[in-house]
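Quick illustration for those who missed Monday's session on complexes.
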Amino acid sequence: MSTAYFKGDFMPLEAVRVSPLDRGYLLGDGVYEVVPVYGGRMFCTDAHLDRLERSLGAIAMKSPLSRSAWVDMLDTLIARNGGGEQSLYFQVTRGEAPRNHAFPQAPRPLVFAMSKPGHRRAYPEPMPAVTRNDNRWGRCDIKAIALLPNVLLRQEAVSAGAGEAILLRDGLVTEGAASNVFVVADGVLMTPPKSSKILAGITRDVTLELASAAGIPCEECDISEAALRSADEIWVTSSTMEITPVSRLDGRPLIGGAPGPLWQQVFERFLAFKSDFAKALGETIA
Ligand SMILES: Cc1ncc(COP(=O)(O)O)c(C=O)c1O
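Prediction with pyridoxal-5'-phosphate bound:
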């Protein structure tokens, strides 16, 4: 049974009881993070906690825990769930209050955190993707728990036999239903720039860093639908999917085949980065 954190205590996940008046439950009024754990250690902790603070600020909330209290709580959660490879999920909602769209006078933010054991394959399988119209709201930079459009778009992908929906807004690629998107054309790695139209993915930043370090030319630029369809390689990145190559787009195989040569180069660096990171704690990645 896994251990969760709720209302200041550690407890079995099954013992967590949320009030039906919690604004997260009723209104989707909250934000969240997902952090991979390698070798018992959170990956890119500061980047995730910085983003959590940005998301909270964007919904007019302050972090209910200090930076060191977050780290202590999450480290304890990792240890209580056996260390090794995990995926942490944590959220902050505006808490329990009589149902009303406007904020309560004295909100009592609620923190919930849980861990899933991670059993990632060393090498992700190339995955089919489909394109869909990006019909989400205008603040996709906030990691909001209200994910209904993303849920419906991901389900459309799954129903079509694919693993991800790549989203297009006004003829340009934005991101995936739960990932960022990279495209390779003529040896250049491209990804849409950070804006309110996408979530600033932590894995996106790591991917750009590793690719630049490998000497691959990288551009944060608009990617048209035509450029997506004629790409040599397409990758989707997230804390959960890491860097996954796309095998087919809307049923058509990628021009360069999958996985492509640039993906292989960057993914090798990603594996080395993860393994160095885990070794710093003296554990090895299974
Ligand atoms: C919409 C969306 N974009 C991008 C990402 C990738 O973010 P990260 O790499 O920080 O996991 C996610 C992750 O869940 C997401 O939901």
